[in-house]
Amino acid sequence: MTPELLAADGIRLDARLHQGAEGRAAVVLAHGITGDLDELGHFPRLAARLGERGVTVLRFSYRGHGASGGTPRGVTIEGERLDLLAAARYALAVTSGPLFLVASSFGAVSTLLSLPLLGPRLRGLVLWNPVLDLRRTFLEPSLPRGRELYGGAAESFARRGFLRIRDGFDVDPALFEEFTRHDPLRALSGWRGPALIVHGDQDRHVPCAVARATADNRPDTVFHVVPGADHGFRPPGHARELIEVTADWLRSREQSVAGVR
């Protein structure tokens, strides 16, 4: 089903609703930068897996991504927060069960910064290769792929007025200015709910060490390493492990809060 999904500022968001059983959990899937509601095929596969158990899943494309309104140069953290909140509130309206969020890469930023606004029905969070440290990922990138993509950001902004992350996806300096003001790691540390973090130990884009240290120092947090996996979990074996670990954790959390078998 293709729902009518609008952010609070009127941006239309492309979305797919996989309707489950009434009273069961709702899971919202948030993709990374330059991605879309498919997230390299992982989101449809996870939705199908969860749908076998009657779970409702909503996946959507952030503004400036996929078939959603807006442009890449209009992408901001604040805009993505509006998009994430619109998706979460829609999911809460179509089922009375608990809410869970699955956020991939940069999708973790808007997700984590929105946690205080999502209310008591939010009962768990899954993060895939999450961006937790904006400085080490974008502003002073510590890994090879990050340096390749963002190392020349200041020069590109000064010379061209934008930074090209990939063909057809240019971002504005306003996004990088936001990186100096927001702290998704602090937002996660301040939230009391359970979390699963899945990270590839060969990620060349987002530091696995940050995610590991976060999980080690946060209560009720499971850290799962996918050996040999880079940022996108592209090889079939890595993708299967990602989906299985995520689905199993979500099942166990739903059982713990709702008594569902």
TrEMBL record:
Alphabetical keyword list: Hydrolase
InterPro entries the record matches: AB_hydrolase_1 (IPR000073), AB_hydrolase_fold (IPR029058)
Pfam families: Abhydrolase_6 (PF12697)
Name the UniProt record assigns to this protein: Alpha/beta hydrolase
GO molecular function, one term: hydrolase activity
Domain AB hydrolase-1 span(s) in chain numbering: 27-243
Record organism: Amycolatopsis antarctica
Superkingdom in the source lineage: Bacteria
